[in-house]
Amino acid sequence: MSTTTPPETAPGRPLTAEAPAAPRPRASRRRGELGPLGTALLHGGLVLASLIALVPVAWLFFLSLGSEKDDYLHPGRIFGRAGFGNYAFVLQHTGFFDWFKSTMIVALGTTFIGVFVAATTGYAVSRMRFPGYKPLMWVLLLTQAFPIAILIVPMYEIFGELGLIDTYWALILINCSTAVPYSAWLLKGYFDTIPFEIDEAGRVDGLTPFGTFFRLILPLARPGLAVAAFYNFITAVGEVAFATTFMLDDSKYTFAVGLQTFVSEHDAQWNYMAATAVLIAIPVSVFFYLVQKNLVTGLTAGGTKG
């Protein structure tokens, strides 16, 4: 016969059941924090958006590996004979390097001149009030409402009188005329985010208005300048209508005009065009890499404060 030994207790203390552990308090979710389902949906959406952005580029690169001009109609044939022959042909038997030189001259010239004019204009309309202030803002805005094609004829007559036809200066000035108004609006919004007290402190220290602008304001506006520079650069690289009309010498063709040499009235070399398009993307990607650190900050500031 077995016996059960009761647990030992301290003398004078009644025997009681052990109290259950208190439940842990649930971790409270901070305001704006997503739950597991929301996080999964967010990451799934970002992955889908990344694929949508990358698939066209990957498909263009895939087509550039085909050896025949009609391979884009039968992409399955590319797997058996993929190669870099199209790139070798473009680099060795076309004016690619002349196109590259012309594009860089026009794009970098448009970038430096356009950003300088846009920065001074944006700073002036952000800090100063002068007669014609509002009409100037409206003019900058309305210039974006008209298609650039309507400027070809008057611009051609003006540059013909000035002797600038078939020169890089013609394309640089025309590209600036289309890119500067938008850049000035963008930079005006960014300059508005910089406190006016910085201008006053610079003048107290003896700086002129130009000294205040170049030595104090421009370094603080670097994100906005990066956005404006990128916009001016890609505008000049992708411009077609003016480059086709104003550049007559084959050695001065830009990338956009050079691509048209692969298209004739009854034929198109799609494999060479795909390879050239991939090569054109390289300098644009390099420029984007150089300015991308400041690009997001400049875009958000200009968009919310403009």
The overall average pLDDT, rounded, is 82
Q: Sum up the overall morphology in one term.
A: flat
Terminal-residue CA separation:
92 Å
Counting H and I runs of at least 4 residues, what is the number of helices? 12
The percentage of residues in β strands lies in: under 5%
* Structural classification: mainly alpha
State the helical fraction. Answer: 55-70%
Largest sheet: none
Whole-angstrom Rg: 31 Å
Using DSSP, what is the number of strands?
A: 0
Order of helices and strands: HHHHHHHHHHHH
Low-pLDDT windows of residues: 1-12, 302-306
Topology (elements, then pairings):
Blueprint (H helix, E strand, L loop, with lengths): L35 H29 L20 H9 L2 H32 L5 H10 L9 H11 L5 H24 L4 H9 L4 H12 L1 H17 L2 H6 L8 H5 L10 H36 L1
Helix pairs in contact: 1-12, 2-12, 3-6, 3-9, 6-9, 6-12, 7-8, 9-12
Name the features.
306 residues; mainly alpha; flat
Compact description:
With 306 residues, this protein is mostly helical. It has helices at residues 36-64, 85-93, 96-127, 133-142, 152-162, 168-191, 196-204, 209-220, 222-238, 241-246, 255-259, 270-305.
